Amino acid sequence: MDSSPTTAAAAPMAAPAPPLDDCLRLLRGERDEQKLAGLLVAANVCRAGDAGAVRKVYDAVGPRFLRRLLNTGLGKVEGGKEEEREAYLRLALTVLAGLARVPEVAADEGVVSTVPLVAEVVSKSADPAIIEECFELLSLIAIASEDGSYKFCEAGVIDMIFLQISSLPDGSKCIELAINLMRLLVHKLKFDNMSVENLQGMTSMVTCLARLFAVLHTAVKFDALHMLTTLLSQKESPLHDLLRSMPASIWESNIRVGITAILQNRVVSSEKLHALLLAECMMSILGEDWLSEDCKIQDTQNVLPVDKFVLLVLESARIEVAVLLNELAYLKYESSKTSQTDEAVCQKQRNLAILFSLIERIIKMISNASSGEGAPSQTIRESTIMQAITGLNETISLVLDFLQDAKDHGQRKGDDLLAAARIVGSYLAEAPYACKEKIRNLLEFIFSIEGQDESSPFYSICFMLPMLSQITMEADGCITLASFGGYKAVIDCLVKMTEQDGIDNGSMFLACDTIINFMSNRKGVNIPVDSCFIRLLKALVTWAGTTNASSVTMTASCLCAMLIDLTSEEFLLSCSDFDTKTLGSLSELIVRSLQQDVPDDDEEQFNQKQIIVSGYRRWADRFPHVKNVVEQHVSV
User: Any signal peptide, and if so, which residues (predicted)?
Assistant: First the structure.
């Protein structure tokens, strides 16, 4: 039997392999000896590549016998000598790999069901030829169908297949096939509709990749890095929820070790960007404080101390940002325009957005550490915080120079400019008086920036609100905002928020606080009662009508009380876009705020109520309708 497949394979076309009918008759035989003889012939039939013949072979032998042959080869069935078991194993794998070259057969439930057994072979065999055959077979199954690829997510399968990779010889065919299989699964598996059981399998893949990323110092390290960023950079992924629910584990530390190795060594910029993206993903999934948590790893590897790791990531990001800003400015304003230039600009803008997102998270982490709100395991030193703040100041100054360059060239539209405005806003939210002169000169321009898909400025103003709500607490900040009519842009921004689906209360509060501060500290700046003014009143009434939250009621009513102190009921009703219905809603809002019980420990609401009461007493006679409604419900 051993010689016939060889002779048949070497024969010319005129003398084909043993007749298919003979092979099928043997495979359908009742005795195992007949089936085994048939399989020896079937191996050559599969090599011939006739899809129809392969399908007949598979139907004749059936998956049950092939699974039994694999179990025998794995020693799960009693009897048989060791050399016989290995021969059975080789035969089963060879035939299965041949059958799986026909996608219809590879997608069959019977072939798919062999995945856990083949994975077990990978985990137990030391024979490179057997392992290669296993990986080829598994890849064919994964490619052929969704069911085939999802079979890998069953408990233990991923671990059996990929935990051995780090022990495979570097540059070997085995490791090439293993990485190709893992890459195939990473790109093919979709998390959205996965069961919890299958997601558990994906966490095993993350764990395996993290280990490879940490321990290997070959090209596979970069393969692992790319696959990790693919898995972890997907937004709102259920895999992230499962990773968050896992107890602190070695995979987090392994990723830290891998990132350190990439950033500390001389590697191309694109790989450093991938490592920085991975750091951003980890902070996105596990929280900003992941970067500064003191993780222990029970291994022989030297883990970089927390403070050095924080500064390594930050400094690496700062260097890449400085390079990208220079390159972008050159490509946009100085080089000749070509399609290749446009493509290069888009790629650099995407890379810049990744780095900005990472630096924003580091800003948040530094803020938490400075305020004592960081995680209990956070051990970052004060000197590290100060060094990080110095570096952040320098980077924000570079970003402002980039915006100044855009202003000088008359460019105010683009997602890169919007991203620059966002990171500036994030930093100024924590340090509102940083880069004070540059901000004073650029604030009007920042207010004019539009994203690529925006028809008018909105998000650029939203990004500035945390800073504006702080600097307008002083007259100097109000003067800056009034110098270019910036308060009107804030009002327009607030009005737009109320017109969107799902009002962002956080941004609404910041916008209201900015305008309240501005009106309280404006010192002679005149606010005209125009259409902008009317739209603001109507927006505040609309916002307050969407919720019963006391914070919304008091904030909206406080600002309304300040606004209507500038005019009269008669004037408002003379305006075409203000009617008695709006006046009625405004009256109800004032009543609700006056009836509101303010908690003793809520200083902000207490101050707001004082503003409402004192304002009402000043303007009540000018608003007879409002006064009448108030007097029916509350005594002021």
Answer: none
H helix runs in 372-414, sequence order: 382-408
Of 567, 552, 627, the residue nearest 636 (C-alpha): 627
**Alpha carbon 376 to chain centroid distance?**
25
Q: What pLDDT was estimated at residue 8?
A: 35
pLDDT tens, position by position, 390-433: 999 999 999 999 999 999 999 999 999 999 999 999 999 999 99
Mean pLDDT of all residues belonging to the chain: 88
Query: For residue 238, what pLDDT is reported?
Result: 86
Locate tokens 């009540």: which residue? 620
Reference 353, options 280, 440, 446; nearest CA is 280
Tokens of 92: 């089963």
Q: How far apart are CA 458 and CA 494, in angstroms?
A: 9
Is 226 strand, coil or helix? helix
Three-class DSSP category at 293:
strand
- C-alpha–C-alpha distance, residues 299 and 209, integer Å: 17
**Do the Cβ atoms of 162 and 211 come closer than 8 Å?**
no
Residues in CB range of 616: below 8 A, 6 or more apart: 561, 590, 594, 630, 636
Pinpoint the alpha helices (H) of 499-623: 505-521, 531-544, 550-564, 569-574, 580-595, 603-619
Amino acid occupying residue 341 = T
pTM over 0.70: yes
DSSP string for residues in 600-632? TT-HHHHHHHHHHHHHHHHHGGG-HHHHHHHHH
For the chain, which residues score pLDDT lower than 50?
Answer: 1-17, 300
pLDDT score for 248: 66
Non-local (6+) Cβ contacts of 127 within 8 A are none
Residue showing tokens 């065919």 = 173
| Strand partners for 378 | 293
In this predicted structure, what is the pLDDT of residue 377?
A: 52
The candidate with the shortest Cα–Cα distance to 588, out of 557, 618, 555, is 557
pLDDT at 21: 83
3-state secondary structure of 378: strand
